[in-house]
Automatic annotation (TrEMBL):
Organism: Suicoccus acidiformans
Name the UniProt record assigns to this protein: PTS sugar transporter subunit IIA
An annotated GO BP: phosphoenolpyruvate-dependent sugar phosphotransferase system
Compartment list: Cytoplasm
Coiled-coil regions, chain positions: none
Protein origin, superkingdom: Bacteria
GO molecular function: kinase activity
InterPro entries: Dup_hybrid_motif, PTS_EIIA_1_perm, PTS_EIIA_component
Domain PTS EIIA type-1: 21-126
PROSITE patterns: PTS_EIIA_TYPE_1
Length: 168
């Protein structure tokens, strides 16, 4: 099964190794990419289901298949920001989403005022279940541009279950 990852926010796309946070740049949390956003609107990069929303609302996960998840992390070192402060979420856990759905909005000026970097990160946290990750584009990208892809092998030892909007 091939999975395409589309751009989640307009801006400058960079390889995950260029993200200014070693947890991401050293790929401790998986493969992926960062985007230096030109605005704060965050869209779904894939079809899936919201599996986790972090307490401070700075990050959430999208379950793509039974065992494959993407982590969306808004800003660098934003875990310490007061709950919800510059982050507005339009999602809830268990909600099905489609690529292109508006998921969140980040107040970039508030991040700047808190001296936090704006980088939006998309990381595949379940690398053991995928192969052939490819980052197709770096540089300026619009929302919805194809940025990356990966394969989930047929012999991964489980049944890949795609989520649709009517999945519960």
């Amino acid at each position: 099964m091939n999975v395409n990852i589309y751009n989640l926010v307009a801006g400058e796309v960079l390889p995950i190794t260029d993200v200014n946070d070693f947890s991401f740049s050293d790929k401790l949390l998986g493969e992926g990419f960062g985007v230096e956003p030109s605005n704060g609107k965050i869209y779904a990069p894939v079809d899936g289901k919201i599996s986790t929303i972090f307490k401070m609302k700075h990050a959430f996960s999208i379950q793509v298949t039974e065992r494959v998840e993407l982590l969306i992390h808004m800003g660098i070192n934003t875990l310490t920001i007061e709950e919800g402060s510059p982050f507005t979420l339009f999602i809830e856990e268990g909600q099905s989403v489609e690529a292109g759905d508006l998921l969140a909005e980040v107040d970039l000026a508030a991040l700047d005022a808190l001296l936090k970097e704006r980088t939006i990160i998309c990381a595949i946290t379940s690398m053991e279940w995928i192969q052939d990750f490819k980052l197709h584009q770096v540089g300026q990208a619009a929302v919805g541009d194809l940025l990356a892809s990966f394969d989930i092998p047929d012999n991964a030892g489980f049944q890949a279950k795609e989520f649709t909007n009517d999945s519960q």
